[in-house]
Amino acid sequence: MVNARLTWLLESKGFLPITQSGFRKGRSTTDNLVHLDHSIRHGFSSKKVTYAIFLDMSKAFDVTW
Length: 65
What we know:
The structure is a single chain. This protein is mainly α and 65 residues long. The chain contains 2 helices and no strands. It has helices at residues 2-13, 29-45.
């Protein structure tokens, strides 16, 4: 119940950025990939540089308890 209310509050007040897709209803990783693709294509067409940083944190928490 608390999770549902908190999610509703954050969504309705716009506290979550539009680029966040994790743990949100109706959004997935595909949304971020489409946004990245759009940014790259827009950068090419307007002759601007597009930067992207990818982090692999798959083993980041293996040493914690």
